[in-house]
Every structure is written in structure tokens, then in C-alpha cells.
Amino acid sequence: MNKQDWKLDSRYGMSHPHKDIVEVEHYRFYSAKLASGMAAIAIFLATILFVWNDGDVNPITITSRGTENSRFDKLTWDLGYVGYGYLWGEHPSWQHTYQQRCLVDNGYGCTSETTPWEFAQMMFVDGWDNLLTLLFLLVFVFSFQFTFFFLRKPAPVRFNRALGAIYTWRRGQLWILPERNFDFTFKTEIDIASSRSDSGPMRIKLCSGRKPKKRRTFLLGDYTTQLPYYGRCFGEDLQRFMTSVDGLDLTPVPRRHPYLWWQWSIFGKRDLPDDIDQRAADWIKQQGIEVPPPSDKAEWEAREAWKAEEAAQKLADQKRQAAEEEEAETARQSALSAARRLFRNK
């Protein structure tokens, strides 16, 4: 199956690492990574064009005081409240303010002996609100600029048919749902980026492993799909997988989800804990939930029959071994009795 046809398949977005396990990715990760990447590129370009370039893009203007300010000087003007231009760095306006307005005109409460450090303290007290606004602006800009590099691919959601549970790991805790409670919702959504309005994710609510009454909605599937009503078809396929042994053909489904270059982050992707299956099994046991077999019982019954046969064979082996040990003990006792009789006759 070629890539284009695969994106039109309702199984697109699944991986199949084990016969009884399907893992599903998070639908929103792609769009979040795309948006953060575009924001990072836009901010980097804006920084280059409007701050660091000279010439027409960074014109020099003459203030009313006769100082020459560039665009960069205008953008960094508020840094004068923390000493920029007279305590550290060079800024025409703030150099003029300290040299003329402070030392010569004795403005701002200065004297002719006011040091740059003392003047910086005066300016900080006078302009702390401007600095706070600037700080929020910088945090806002830099968060958008560097989110792409820290946004990690989340751990997949695992559908375990043998265990009869759906679960994942998020923010240090297990989120789980028994198969008997498995239900999903779907609604179309308008996506400007792909110019579509006939698709959307499958939505499922999982319970907190610590507080079962607490629920969280997970949006599952692959954002890059081109199948109309994808979330609904995707959810129906997963229901067939969970409730039947051979109800869903998983032949074209890859064993692992790919980790593409644009999904990279500084801290790598998130993975499910190695013991998550045991954690899920323990949770199911604590809740007193019995795992029901799939509705298509052909292979399931064969598997149970094989288990029963193995148990019967093991029991037969134990009985045979016990019989052999008993026979050996009887023979030993007979030999001892014969030896005693022979000794008495002598």
C-alpha cells in the first residue's frame, strides 16, 4: 500500500507491536508542533529583519534632544531603567539623560556627584512597571520562539485486548479504561491549515489510576490523515479490535510509530513505562474487574482449550511421577522385607 492510499485508510495512526496490542498516537501533537515551528521561524525572521539589520530596515531617527536613535535603540529603550546606556552598554538617549538631565540639570533628584549605580536605582524605582510589562512581553515572545524545541511527542495510548483495558501514561500517572466501558465520541471540526471540515479525532475519556472518578479526554488518531470522518471510522476499528480476535485486519499496520525529524525535541519523545502492563493489570485486579473474552470466540476458545490441555498434561505428569515414586518405594520396602527374612533364616 502506497503512502497516499495509507492516509485514506481508517487504520492510519495505529501501530501493532504485539498480537493483542494496538498503540495510538495523539491527534493534537502534529498541529501543536506545526504551529510552534511556524511561530519560531516567524519570530527568528522578525528578529533578524527588525532588530539586527542596518540600512533601510533599521533607520536612524533624530529625537527632540538631538540624539540619534536606531530601531534597535527604540526597542531596548526600557532597559535604561536597569542601567542600559550609562551603567552598561551604549544607548544614545540614556547616555544623554544621565550626562545632561542628571549630572548637569540635577533632574530626577540627582546631584553632580550621583554615580551611574545610584542613578540606575532611581530609574528602577521610577520605571518598575515598564520593566514588568517588558518582562511579560519577553516571556511571551520567547515561549513561542522556543516551544518547538521543548515540545515532546507524548506517549501513545495502548489498547490491550488480552488485558481488556485501554491505558496510557501522562504526567506521572496511569490513565486507564476497562474495555467493558469503552466508548468514544466524534465530531467534525474546521481545520484551516488543511482546508478541511469533514474530519477530526476520536475522543475517549480515560480514568485516573489514582482517582478513578477523575476523567480526562484524549484526542486520538493521526492529524495528517486524508480520510473523511476519520475519527468515527478509527474508533469503530478499535472497537472491533478490542471485542474480536480476528475482526480487524492489521496486516498493513506498522509495528512501531515512526519518530520523524519534525517530532524531535531536546528531551526526546515520551515512552510508556516498561511496567505499564503490570500497572494496568494491578489496577484491573484492584477494581475487581473480570476480563471478558472477545465476541468472536473461535481463537479465544482454542487458546483456552490449549491452556486446559496444558494443565491436564501437567496434572497427568504429576500423577505419573507420584505413581512411579510410590512404585519405587513399594519395591524398596519389598526388598528390605526380603532381606530381613533371609537374615532371620540364617
Identify the notable features of this structure and list them briefly.
single chain, 346 residues, alpha+beta, 11 strands, 45% helix
Describe what this molecule looks like in 3D.
Helices cover 45% and strands 14% of the residues. It is of the alpha+beta class and 346 residues long. It folds into three domains: 157 residues, no CATH class; 114 residues, no CATH class; 45 residues. It has a seven-stranded antiparallel sheet with strand order 1-2-5-6-7-10-11. Strands 3-4 form a two-stranded antiparallel ribbon. A two-stranded antiparallel ribbon has the order 8-9. A hairpin with a 2-residue loop joins strand 1 and strand 2. Helix 2 packs antiparallel against helix 5. The longest helix has 48 residues. The chain is elongated, with a radius of gyration of 36 Å. The chain starts with a helix and ends with a helix. The mean pLDDT is 81.
